[in-house]
Specification:
Strand content: under 5%
Helix content: over 70%
Distance between the termini: 124 Å
Order of helices and strands: HHHHHHHHHH
Structural class: mainly alpha
Number of strands: 0
Largest sheet: none
Length: 239
């Protein structure tokens, strides 16, 4: 028992243990210190980078239109792969879409998605990209883009957009399935009346899926003619 050993024997045993384990213990302590110091440095550095990125993005938003591109490129260079990079590219894509430059918008949105990855921000970029691709009549590409959306917050919107594309392609059954999936993915308090109408209007009739677009157009045209005739009759009566 150690409590009955003499001081010399205890010292001798300690020296023996230290000779066998001392080096490993020192290395272990040194590694732990490096990890702690490194993490604190990383955390501090990351916080500083976030603050600088936030300031740069605020500068971009407040800048005059003719100054924005230069600031945007600076942000993409200094904060490459960050959320600020992604947000700037999406803002530029929005400006490009407004001027009719849809091809330019596609390139900018793809850049935003690459920077944001699989985050919620990346899925927002995918939704916007699919909309632009649909505008360019790249329906299959738009469907593929929407299929890559993985975050629950955008799942319902992605499925509804897929339904819109399928319906535009005349694929009513696929559209109905997508709309139904979108409705099933709604959160408890979500209210999307238009989505409900889409689900109902693409539902099968007598076991068949029917494209009601032409019938609807004819009904609207007939209503227009009827209203015009009623208006002419009322004018004639007043004369």
């Amino acid at each position: 028992m150690s409590e009955f050993l003499s001081d010399e024997e205890q010292i001798s045993r300690f020296k023996s243990w230290w000779g066998e384990n001392g080096f490993s213990l020192v290395i272990g302590v040194a590694v732990a210190v490096v990890v702690i110091v490194g993490w604190r440095f990383y955390d501090s550095s990351n916080q500083a980078t976030m603050e600088l990125g936030s300031k740069a993005y605020a500068e971009y938003k407040e800048a005059a239109a003719n100054e924005r591109n230069a600031i945007a490129e600076k942000i993409k260079s200094e904060f490459s792969g960050s959320s600020y990079h992604a947000m700037v590219s999406m803002a530029q894509a929005s400006d490009a879409s407004k001027t009719g430059d849809l091809q330019g918008a596609v390139i900018l949105l793809e850049d935003a998605i690459a920077a944001a990855g699989t985050t919620v921000l990346g899925d927002l970029g995918r939704l916007r990209l699919a909309k632009v691709q649909f505008g360019l009549d790249l329906k299959e590409a738009a469907l593929a883009t929407l299929s890559a959306i993985s975050n629950d917050g955008y799942r319902s919107w992605a499925l509804e957009s897929q339904g819109d594309i399928y319906f535009a392609m005349g694929k009513v059954e696929q559209a109905h399935n997508a709309y139904s999936g979108a409705e099933d993915s709604l959160k408890e308090n979500d209210q999307r009346p238009l989505l409900k109408i889409k689900v109902e209007n693409t539902a099968p009739f007598n076991g068949e899926y029917v494209d009601f677009t032409s019938d609807l157009d004819q009904a609207l045209e007939a209503a227009e003619i009827s209203l015009a005739q009623d208006s002419d009759a009322e004018i004639a009566e007043n004369e």
